[in-house]
């Protein structure tokens, strides 16, 4: 299995040869490179916040990361089991020099990763990420003598602080949520969502919470990516319990999707659409999503008097575009919500609180709420890559084939077909090509995706 080194972090499978997997040697090497880069920034303090999701390998990886940071002379604030957005906010709470989140997000249990943060609690810029990769490649790091070793302190309060910050956000209406007396089923996917989502719901006034897969052991009960084909258990339980809705998150709690009261899916693409609709009802402004996300966000934005802007895929790209256009809400169609005046990171907890506020005040069921939004269908597919595939050459040939159609090469290749589109791009986290196609008709989206997948296979 591969070791993926990118500006967004270091990701790989546990077990195997150094340089080919996320081995202990690679963990130490890239942590030392990150620590060296942090020291070069000359931040006022040398504190780094480190936290992890519930993966089986998490404790082992965290021990290596913490010790390595100490060995380069940095102090560690050990948050233990936590969520990605919580660690992002902890960097701000502590005015720390940076942070590391140990999570492979939606990847299966054999994967883990080092997600690297700057002193704003945000993912690194491409320039900073590239610099860390260079430090690692050239062994430009040094370890300090014994009298200059960093220290480690434990702080388990960040998740509570994160939840309190969400509860105090001005558009979160706790009274309205409590008045609706929701019954909610949560699929916590055997990770730290079990520590975050139920306590949040209780403090939002939701007394009737049923938790599936609530043991934090990293032995994921199903594929951890929150997609409909993986959430049949949640859908069944919502029906069985006659619940008002179901909530699913991924293992590090930065992605969010919902199940309607009849067990149908609200649609992960529409998590951002609904939350943006709520925000825009109260604050006029601009929105951003990546170019693989549904056009429904653009429709809702224009309806509310704002402007919509697309970005390249990747949280750092969405954040940069949001800052550039002063967006009031943004995110990604995979269920990632970014509320900029809370923090510039995807955050399922603020997403849940705002969505429930919208749902409660609408006095509608979640199924009725979904009918408020345009119906677009995205067909999401992927093709595994061999080690020697020249992806850019493939994209160039496909672009030439469809040269009479409008196209965009800012992030892979996006081709327009009248009001439909297809987006081809390599993944930042897996050795694959993703093929996303959207249309007003599900069969059309599927057909476009299949056609382009065939084009790719013919050019590999």
Automatic annotation (TrEMBL):
- What's the protein called, per UniProt? Phosphoglucosamine mutase
Identify the residues that the record assigns to the Alpha-D-phosphohexomutase C-terminal domain, covering every copy. Answer: 397-450
Q: What class of enzyme is it?
A: isomerase
State the organism of origin: Ilyomonas limi
- SUPFAM superfamilies named among the record's database cross-references: Phosphoglucomutase, C-terminal domain, Phosphoglucomutase, first 3 domains
Q: Record's Gene3D superfamilies?
A: Alpha-D-Glucose-1,6-Bisphosphate, subunit A, domain 3, Alpha-D-phosphohexomutase, C-terminal domain
Q: Which UniProt keywords apply?
A: Isomerase, Magnesium, Metal-binding, Phosphoprotein
Q: Which gene encodes it?
A: glmM
Domain Alpha-D-phosphohexomutase alpha/beta/alpha, by residue range, is 8-140, 170-263, 270-373
């Amino acid at each position: 299995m591969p070791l993926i080194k990118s500006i967004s972090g270091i990701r790989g499978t546990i077990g195997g040869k150094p340089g080919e997997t996320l081995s202990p040697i690679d963990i130490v090497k890239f942590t030392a490179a990150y620590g060296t880069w942090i020291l070069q920034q000359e931040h006022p303090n040398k504190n780094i916040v480190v936290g992890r999701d519930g993966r089986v390998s998490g404790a082992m990886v965290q021990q290596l990361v913490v010790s390595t940071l100490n060995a380069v002379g940095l102090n560690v604030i050990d948050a233990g089991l936590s969520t990605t957005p919580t660690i992002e906010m902890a960097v701000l709470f502590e005015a720390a020099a940076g942070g590391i989140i140990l999570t492979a997000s939606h990847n299966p249990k054999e994967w883990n990763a080092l997600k690297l943060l700057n002193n704003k609690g945000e993912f690194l810029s491409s320039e900073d990420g590239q610099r860390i990769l260079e430090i690692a490649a050239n062994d430009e790091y040094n370890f300090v003598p014994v009298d200059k070793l960093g220290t480690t302190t434990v702080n388990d309060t960040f998740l509570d602080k994160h939840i309190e910050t969400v509860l105090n956000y001005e558009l979160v209406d706790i009274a309205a949520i409590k008045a609706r007396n929701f019954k909610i089923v949560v699929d916590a996917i055997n990770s730290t969502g079990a520590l975050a989502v139920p306590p949040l719901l209780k403090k939002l006034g939701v007394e009737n919470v049923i938790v599936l897969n609530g043991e934090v052991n990293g032995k994921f009960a199903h594929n951890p990516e929150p997609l409909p084909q993986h959430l049949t258990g949640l859908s069944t339980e919502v029906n069985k319990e006659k619940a008002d809705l179901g909530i699913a998150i991924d293992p590090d709690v930065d992605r969010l999707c919902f199940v309607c009261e009849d067990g149908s899916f609200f649609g992960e693409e529409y998590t951002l659409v609904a939350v943006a609709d709520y925000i825009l009802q109260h604050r006029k402004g601009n929105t951003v999503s990546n170019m693989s996300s549904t056009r429904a966000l653009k429709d809702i934005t224009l309806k509310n008097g704002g402007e919509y802007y697309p970005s390249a895929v990747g949280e750092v790209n969405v954040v940069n575009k949001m800052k550039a256009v002063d967006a009031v809400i943004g995110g990604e169609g995979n269920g990632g919500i970014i509320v900029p005046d809370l923090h510039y990171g995807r955050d399922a907890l603020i997403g849940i609180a705002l969505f429930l506020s919208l749902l409660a005040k609408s006095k509608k069921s979640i199924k009725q709420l979904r009918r408020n939004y345009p119906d677009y269908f995205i067909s999401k597919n992927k093709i595994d890559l061999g080690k020697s595939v020249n992806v850019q050459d493939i994209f160039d040939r496909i672009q030439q084939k469809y040269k009479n159609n409008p196209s965009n090469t800012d992030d892979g290749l996006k081709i327009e077909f009248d009001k439909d589109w297809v987006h081809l791009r390599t993944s930042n986290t897996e050795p694959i090509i993703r093929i996303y196609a959207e249309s007003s008709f599900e069969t059309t989206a599927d057909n476009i995706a299949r056609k382009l997948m065939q084009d790719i296979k013919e050019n590999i």
